[in-house]
Amino acid sequence: MTRRPLGFRPPGVTLLEQGTPGTGAFALISGMVKVIRRDRGDRQRLLAFRGPGEVLGEMALQYGGERLADVRTMSRCRVVWISAGDFHHLVKQHDLAYSLAVVASSRLREQTEMYDGAIHQRLAMALLRLVDISEGVCSFSLTREELAQHIGAGRNSVTKGLRALGPDKVRVEKGRIIVSSVEGLKRALADAGP
User: Fold this and answer.
1) pTM for the whole thing?
2) Counting C-beta atoms within 10 Å of the first and last residue's C-beta, which end of the chain has fewer, N or C?
3) What is the per-residue pLDDT across 47-63, written as a single tens digit (0 to 9) for each?
4) CATH of domain 114-190
5) Helix 155-165 and helix 119-133: axis angle, to 10°?
6) Which residues of the chain form CATH 2.60.120.10?
7) % of the chain residues with pLDDT over 90
8) In 10 A of CB 136, how many CB atoms?
């Protein structure tokens, strides 16, 4: 089995490119990435964030097609490349098909939930997920536009939602979103009710 450690990759590097063949997958050892889908007009939509322990690019290997999205580093990342052949061998040898289906289902649920609730609640949910997958990091190289893409809202709505959450919970600086209070975001989400 051949796995190639790629060492560390700086922020802003495209690890996987939409439309390219699925020749392998990455295991994300450390760091954070964002998953971005481009439409035919080259408009972008930030679909998801991924953190340590996640596999990136496995969908193209499972159905044998092209990559559905770009994957870009948000922070310094360490990844390991797993070739398509090795990936299929691992899935078969360790009976991972069900586990991969659970991951796919979980990701679909995550995407669906991101569109439920008021804007400030969706922002709280997205930011809490970021803190969770980043293992406690509370400052992210992320714009309001990217948050808007992620939760399916307009940039102005996100600005109002961030204002509604308040600087005691989240602050915005040039190109950065900073979570001031994880507990405050949890309370904002809990106050929303079921």
Assistant:
1) 0.87
2) C
3) 999 999 999 999 999 88
4) 1.10.10.10
5) 80
6) 3-110
7) 74
8) 8
